[in-house]
Specification:
By secondary structure, this protein is α/β, with parallel strands linked by helices. Helix content is about 40%, strand content about 20%. Strand 2 (about 40) and strand 3 form a beta hairpin. Helix 1 (about 5-15) packs across helix 5 (about 130-140).
Length: about 220
């Protein structure tokens, strides 16, 4: 089957059958950056707002943005829909705590979700085409996990079928859902996301991002 034909079929299946939810993780303290990196300017908005724009283009039935250390700053941001926010009181326990909080909040909003996207709030080049390809590939292959792959890493964003929801609610520590990917290689498919490696952890990363945008004229 040709790639374009596969994509069209996958979209059709998606629209008919998959009830998609999404969790955006924005709870960390960003210690190396020293400020709310998800609210840094990007293109004509902020990194977080741009991510949400791309995410909304694949039409999830529910989105939860899990906040923590920077809850007040994110709540005050005009570019962010405040109805999407969910404060994780235990954000200091790490990423797993935010995943648990986000999933439970999503299921309260929409109890019949079939799959969830878990997305980090510091990957500015996340885009709707990548997310749609992940959705299509889960439908076409039947794999329970679809993850992005970049720079030798298999990670965010990740799409999980509902059969993994129970495991996600039992996660602990700050390594997120990596353990589930490692334990289920046969049920995992990866999608190349070359620019996924350009996340924002330090001020130098943001400077590199701005340089990249200027060189590629990508902010137009």
């Amino acid at each position: 089957m040709f790639k374009s034909e596969s994509r069209a079929l996958g979209t059709k299946i998606n629209n008919r059958h998959m009830t998609l939810g999404a969790i955006v993780l924005a709870g960390g303290a960003a210690k190396r950056m020293g400020r709310a990196k998800m609210l840094l300017p990007f293109k004509q908005t902020t990194i977080l707002a741009q991510i949400l724009k791309e995410l909304q283009a694949v039409k999830p039935v529910a989105i939860t943005v899990v906040t923590g250390y920077y809850h007040e700053e994110i709540s005050a941001a005009e570019s962010i829909d405040q109805s999407l926010l969910c404060f994780n009181e235990k954000w200091e326990e790490g990423m797993s705590s935010s995943i648990r909080t986000g999933l439970l909040n999503l299921l309260e909003k929409q109890h019949d979700i079939d799959s969830i996207l878990i997305i980090m709030s510091d990957q500015p080049f996340l885009n709707k085409n990548l997310l749609q390809e992940m959705i299509d590939q889960q439908n076409l292959t039947g794999k329970g996990i679809v993850a992005a792959q970049y720079d030798g890493i298999v990670g965010s964003p990740v799409l999980f079928n509902k059969k993994y929801f129970k495991e996600l609610t039992k996660l602990n520590g700050d390594k997120g859902a990596k353990i589930i990917l490692q334990q289920n290689p046969v049920d995992l498919i990866t999608i190349d996301f070359e620019l996924g490696a350009l996340d924002i952890d330090e001020a130098s990363d943001y400077e590199l991002l701005q340089k990249f945008l200027k060189e590629k004229n990508a902010d137009r």
